[in-house]
Amino acid sequence: MLRKLRLSIAILKLRWHASPLKKQRAIKQAIKQNRINGQRYRVFFIGGRFRVWQRNDIRRLRNEGLFKSELKPGVDFDKIAIFDTLKSKNHVPIQ
């Protein structure tokens, strides 16, 4: 009984953090930062939240030990990116 309750709370929490509105907010933030800096930004869903990172952020987090050292910022993280300002035409999310 307690296990089912914890599982249902976890599912509701994940639904709250993964809502389409929060996804669109993260995509808008990536587009805005791309227009200001001209750099490539990616949107990830990691740790139960949408994150907007560029290559330098991924390298810093890898050096701090959050990710494995074998992962490369370009190749490996492109596979799990929800949105990429370079690959998306007219800023449409990757399907």
Overall 3D shape: globular
SSE pattern, N- to C-terminal: HHEEHHE
Backbone CA Rg: 15 Å
Percentage beta strand: 5-15%
User: What's the number of domains?
Assistant: 1
Strand order of the largest sheet: 2-1-3
- Count the helices. How many? 4
Oligomer: single chain
Low confidence ranges: none
Total count of strands = 3
Mean pLDDT: 84
Percent helix range: 40-55%
Which structural category fits the helices and strands?
Answer: alpha+beta
Task: Give the CA-CA distance, first to last residue.
Answer: 38 Å
How would you sum up this structure, described in words?
The protein is globular, with a radius of gyration of 15 Å. 51% of the residues lie in helices and 13% in strands. A three-stranded antiparallel β-sheet has the order 2-1-3. Strand 1 and strand 2 form a beta hairpin. It is of the alpha+beta class and 95 residues long. It has one domain.
Summarize the structure.
This protein has four helices and three strands.
Q: In terms of topology, how is this protein built?
A:
Layout: H1 2-17, H2 20-37, E1 42-46, E2 49-53, H3 55-64, H4 75-78, E3 83-84
Antiparallel strand pairs: 1-2, 1-3
Please supply descriptive tags for the structure shown above:
alpha+beta; 3 strands
